[in-house]
Amino acid sequence: MMEMAWIVPLFPLFSFFLLLLAGKKMKEASAYVGMLATFVSFLVASAVLADRVGGSTYKAEQVWLAIGSAKLTVGFEVTALNAWMLVIVSLVSFLVHMYAKGYMQGDERFSVFYAYLGLFTFAMLGLVISPNLLQTYMFWELVGLGSFLLIGFYFYKEEAKAAAKKAFIMTRVGDVGFFIGMILLFLQVGSFEYSDIFKAVQDGTLSQPMVTLTAILIFVGAVGKSGQFPLHTWLPDAMEGPTPVSALIHAATMVAAGVYLVAALFPLYEASETALLTVAVVGGFTAIFAASIALVQTDIKRVLAYSTVSQLGYMMLALGSGSDVAAIFHLTTHAFFKALLFLAAGSVIHAVGTQDIEKMGGLWRKMPLTAALFLVGALAISGVPLLSGFFSKDEIFAAAWMHGHGVLFWIAVVASFFTAFYMFRLFFLVFGGEERHGAKDVHESPAVMTLPMLVLAVLSVAAGYIHTPWFGTFLGDWLTDGGYAHEKTPSWMMIVAAIVSLLGIFLAWLMYGKRSLARDWLSSRAPLTYNVLLNKYYIDEFYAWTVGYVANAISRLFYYVDRFVIEGIASLITATVNAAASLGSRMQNGQVQTYGAVTFIGLALLVAILAFTGGYL
Amino acid sequence: MSSVPLSAYLVLALILFCIGLYGALTKRNIVVVLICIELMLNAVNINLVAFAKYGAHPGVAGQIFALFTIAVAAAEAAVGLAVLMALYRNRKTVHIDEIDSMKH
Amino acid sequence: MNGPYFLSLLVFSPLLGILLLAFTPKTQERTMKWLGFLSTLPSLILSLFAFFQYLRGYRLEHLAEKRDWIRFADFPFLTESTFVVRYELNIDGLSLVMIVLASLLAALAAIASIHIKKEWKGYFMLFLLLEIGMLGVFAAGNMVLFFIFLEVTLVAMFFLIGKWGGFARERAAYSYLLYNGVGSAILLIVIAVLFARAGTSNMELLKEMLHNPAARAQLIAPIPDGLRLSLFIALLIAFGIKLPIVPFHRWILRVHVQAPPAVVMLHAGVLLKIGAYGLIRFGIGLFPDQFRDFSFLIAILGIVNLLYGAFLAFIQDDFKMVLAYSSVSHMGIVLIGLGALNEAGMQGAIFQTVSHGFISALLFLLVGILYERTNTTELDRLGGLAKAMPLTAGSLLAGAMASLGLPGMSGFVSEFTAFFGLFQTAPIVAAIGTLGIIMTAVYLLRAVLNMTFGASKSGAAQALDMSVTEAVPVFVLLALIIMVGVYPRILAEPLQAAIKMMMNGLGA
């Protein structure tokens, strides 16, 4: 089955083209085309995974473009990681396709939405089976396109337009790093193939500074895509897109591509302590940074978006701590519970018609199923014991501790406390308390929406057990081809993690559930801190004032150079010709004697030249 | 055989030519300008004859040229004076600086 | 196809259209539009035929044509071929690709000419004349013929801009004529010097005489290094105006804005490429040593072009101006590729000429469609086009994506290959240049999203989407862009031999 893996991305691509051409006529049936395509993809992907479990890596390639003696290839590769990602992506994509049928019901551009989803799924699936950096880069950009199109789906909204543009440009800034790093790697190694690069790293063909440089440059690409600080600002804005999109692209799959990339290139990073440290520090910082912003946001999707940024920071921290298994494990569990949370949030938004949590409340009674499912997701992400998030986060804590990142470990623990707090702040504000949302008729979402959520909820609980210190580290063993040496986690660590998350939940309950603590505790005690958090540390404003200002200033400068200097020189030349011409015509004064004088002077000059040069020039 | 050297003729011709040129370029009266042109032609004639006699290859060709020039000059003077008469009838002036209808 | 008339037929087939048009009554609008379009087809068919034959292994040398034409001097001590200008046509992989590009875009531009409102007769006659010039430039086997065809395009373009252009069309036409006239004059001087000293203007012979020590004896007068250097600089300026290289770019702004969009399709799509083609053919072909010495400067010029155009495109208010500066910026990538001085760079440069040909033609096609309905291309007055004209808006977005180098479309292949080449020779310069990749995305998205996204503005609220006739060229171009992007070998393979030969010349 592995040799058929290339077919997995093609089903969604087919759905994209079909819906683009015939979507208008198919209307609601578009959803079934999309669902069918992704479901088939999921089935084939599962078969590939099953095949890979027993077998070894399969790779097939052919020449795409020859540049001189260099042959650039395209193809596909089924490694353990790739097969695993194929299944996750196609599964979440299928569930989101299904959910969107209910969520997008009645939208004028229903089929376009499904077409775009197909395009994105194609690109994402293509990304995870790429055997080389160049192909990865190509699909990397294409998922960016899918994300761009879907963020800008409500194109008539100014916010959506701005967000789409921002997402594309911010990620492109990162992509340029990737681009440079990739080319530099090729120039050193002579190949874009992952396997060749790893071999060169082992042989020492790549010098140490070069390893560090390329690793960090490629990490810049990952920073852009995965919304890590300082290129994170596009991700919260990307919530302008429809909620199913936020679940699929901006939570479960595309934003995890950065983590996937670093994991796929892990041997390169392992060879450079500096690169690993960079990854770890950026990840750790982003984890707490984004979590702190999420504490005070009032838009339900933005809280989840910052939570995503923070969780991606965790994954980067895991990678930087030398544990790609922990990162992929968290990527997996996060894909499930964050998609679940987004879909649940979408279900709420669908029902209430607002995203402002201040305007929600008491939905527990109106939408019991959604509330229960959201609770499962919230518990999982908070790291409550026995749910998936607990195990994967624990693995990250262990990795950070073992790698000697004491400070980063404690940062991660604090961020975990924040996570538990903001998730349950969200939960209590939205589902607890009394109703605050006017007279709107609120009811539970249809089955087509709750069913995918149910599946995700089951996975959010169960996914943790594929890799636990208690029942066996299946995922780790498999990803490392049996070479996974599980370090014994100190038992106090689990207890600390559990206590911290329960503390967070408890505090949220005190403040928003029981109300025994004033809600405006922070805003009244430390208005400055509160405002800084509410305004996301003024990063957007900072960029507008620096990068935006500089770009504008350069453009203005060039504008004036173009307008006045270059055009000025051109006009000067034409003006000179003009002046010479009018001078010449002024000399035509009709006075025969002037002409005679000029003629004579000319003759005299010629004779003089002749006399001085002796007749030869 | 006289002992007057060639250079003397040439200097004479030069002086004559310069006077003619000066007059042709500066005088306002067309009649004077025409006379000055005749002067320049005559300076050339002196040159031709002088070289015909004392040049590197003495011969009759120079003298023939001089005769030609005299004939042409006569014709030119006739045409010039005729044009002048016509102009005078139309414009009531013989001042050359007032005749500039050909300017740009 | 082995007839000795194949290339002449290809180049001069639009002449038939001109003749037929001459006998068509002035009022027959439909007939003339059809005639104009149909007359572009023979050369398109012939060039595609030659292209696919070449892909299948046909040798292009068989197509060369050679006829006696002008003999300047008839001295007994001169050999048969000295001071003779022959009518010589021959092509290699590079010129074949350019010919296919030219004939293809000419056919599509002829379809786009349905928006022309007046004097169709003169328009299509000049249009076809322009096509002859373009095809001839790429097929010419010697410099004199090259120059003559180049001047044909100049004359035809001058009238096309001056008569059928926008409000300031005459100024644009004069601007075009002046800049290109200066460029042509400089080129003519170079040709004259070479002709006087070598006694021939045939490119192959010249190349041989300039480099091969054995053939050097055939020169009438020696061409010392100093003279070579000045000739090379003159060529750089002559084709730099055409390309254009900053600071010789002001004229293309006026042409882009004022000329009718169908003509701009050809202008941006093919005529600018003559600059690149000339630089490659003459600059590298005849003066490889000088080119090597200048390569770093050329790469720098490329970066300057790229960034300068990008930053200026960022603040323009008119979509046509954005595209004009984007042309400047994208031609920078051609220079970057050439300056890289290696196979990758060369391939990138040629890819970029072709790719930009498709993309700019597509974008101007859309500009024409848009202008027809809204009568404006100003960004502030447009908005929300995606609602009223989803197809047009979508194509516009696709064109922008291609232009900013999205993988899977032709722009990416050329951009990637050119930078790939430059990173090998000058990594620091290349790294600075990558800033251009970001800026391209910034200005294109700003412009396109302003027009297509957001709230609908008055100008475009009830505009109709593109008609079938308009859609055909749009989709043909999109398909080509994607084809080259997904399967670049279709371009790389015919170019391989030509690139290899140039690299040999450069001694790399």
Automatic annotation (TrEMBL), chain A:
<feature type="transmembrane region" description="Helical">
    <location>
        <begin position="327"/>
        <end position="349"/>
    </location>
</feature>
<dbReference type="InterPro" id="IPR001750">
    <property type="entry name" value="ND/Mrp_TM"/>
</dbReference>
<feature type="transmembrane region" description="Helical">
    <location>
        <begin position="176"/>
        <end position="194"/>
    </location>
</feature>
<feature type="transmembrane region" description="Helical">
    <location>
        <begin position="81"/>
        <end position="100"/>
    </location>
</feature>
<feature type="transmembrane region" description="Helical">
    <location>
        <begin position="595"/>
        <end position="616"/>
    </location>
</feature>
<dbReference type="GO" id="GO:0003954">
    <property type="term" value="F:NADH dehydrogenase activity"/>
</dbReference>
<feature type="transmembrane region" description="Helical">
    <location>
        <begin position="206"/>
        <end position="224"/>
    </location>
</feature>
<feature type="transmembrane region" description="Helical">
    <location>
        <begin position="492"/>
        <end position="512"/>
    </location>
</feature>
<keyword id="KW-1133">Transmembrane helix</keyword>
<feature type="transmembrane region" description="Helical">
    <location>
        <begin position="112"/>
        <end position="131"/>
    </location>
</feature>
<feature type="transmembrane region" description="Helical">
    <location>
        <begin position="275"/>
        <end position="296"/>
    </location>
</feature>
<feature type="transmembrane region" description="Helical">
    <location>
        <begin position="369"/>
        <end position="387"/>
    </location>
</feature>
<feature type="transmembrane region" description="Helical">
    <location>
        <begin position="137"/>
        <end position="156"/>
    </location>
</feature>
<feature type="transmembrane region" description="Helical">
    <location>
        <begin position="407"/>
        <end position="431"/>
    </location>
</feature>
<feature type="transmembrane region" description="Helical">
    <location>
        <begin position="245"/>
        <end position="269"/>
    </location>
</feature>
UniProtKB/TrEMBL annotation, chain B:
<dbReference type="GO" id="GO:0048038">
    <property type="term" value="F:quinone binding"/>
</dbReference>
<keyword id="KW-0520">NAD</keyword>
<dbReference type="InterPro" id="IPR001133">
    <property type="entry name" value="NADH_UbQ_OxRdtase_chain4L/K"/>
</dbReference>
<protein>
    <recommendedName>
        <fullName>NADH-quinone oxidoreductase subunit K</fullName>
        <ecNumber>7.1.1.-</ecNumber>
    </recommendedName>
</protein>
<comment type="subunit">
    <text>NDH-1 is composed of 14 different subunits. Subunits NuoA, H, J, K, L, M, N constitute the membrane sector of the complex.</text>
</comment>
<comment type="similarity">
    <text>Belongs to the complex I subunit 4L family.</text>
</comment>
<dbReference type="GO" id="GO:0042773">
    <property type="term" value="P:ATP synthesis coupled electron transport"/>
</dbReference>
<comment type="function">
    <text>NDH-1 shuttles electrons from NADH, via FMN and iron-sulfur (Fe-S) centers, to quinones in the respiratory chain. The immediate electron acceptor for the enzyme in this species is believed to be a menaquinone. Couples the redox reaction to proton translocation (for every two electrons transferred, four hydrogen ions are translocated across the cytoplasmic membrane), and thus conserves the redox energy in a proton gradient.</text>
</comment>
<keyword id="KW-0812">Transmembrane</keyword>
<feature type="transmembrane region" description="Helical">
    <location>
        <begin position="32"/>
        <end position="52"/>
    </location>
</feature>
<keyword id="KW-0874">Quinone</keyword>
<feature type="transmembrane region" description="Helical">
    <location>
        <begin position="6"/>
        <end position="25"/>
    </location>
</feature>
<dbReference type="GO" id="GO:0050136">
    <property type="term" value="F:NADH dehydrogenase (quinone) (non-electrogenic) activity"/>
</dbReference>
<keyword id="KW-1133">Transmembrane helix</keyword>
<dbReference type="Pfam" id="PF00420">
    <property type="entry name" value="Oxidored_q2"/>
</dbReference>
Automatic annotation (TrEMBL), chain C:
<comment type="similarity">
    <text>Belongs to the complex I subunit 4 family.</text>
</comment>
<protein>
    <submittedName>
        <fullName>NADH dehydrogenase subunit M</fullName>
    </submittedName>
</protein>
<dbReference type="GO" id="GO:0003954">
    <property type="term" value="F:NADH dehydrogenase activity"/>
</dbReference>
<feature type="transmembrane region" description="Helical">
    <location>
        <begin position="391"/>
        <end position="413"/>
    </location>
</feature>
<feature type="transmembrane region" description="Helical">
    <location>
        <begin position="6"/>
        <end position="23"/>
    </location>
</feature>
<feature type="transmembrane region" description="Helical">
    <location>
        <begin position="466"/>
        <end position="487"/>
    </location>
</feature>
<dbReference type="GO" id="GO:0005886">
    <property type="term" value="C:plasma membrane"/>
</dbReference>
<keyword id="KW-0812">Transmembrane</keyword>
<feature type="transmembrane region" description="Helical">
    <location>
        <begin position="35"/>
        <end position="55"/>
    </location>
</feature>
<dbReference type="InterPro" id="IPR010227">
    <property type="entry name" value="NADH_Q_OxRdtase_chainM/4"/>
</dbReference>
<dbReference type="GO" id="GO:0008137">
    <property type="term" value="F:NADH dehydrogenase (ubiquinone) activity"/>
</dbReference>
<feature type="transmembrane region" description="Helical">
    <location>
        <begin position="419"/>
        <end position="445"/>
    </location>
</feature>
<feature type="transmembrane region" description="Helical">
    <location>
        <begin position="94"/>
        <end position="116"/>
    </location>
</feature>
<dbReference type="GO" id="GO:0042773">
    <property type="term" value="P:ATP synthesis coupled electron transport"/>
</dbReference>
<feature type="transmembrane region" description="Helical">
    <location>
        <begin position="177"/>
        <end position="199"/>
    </location>
</feature>
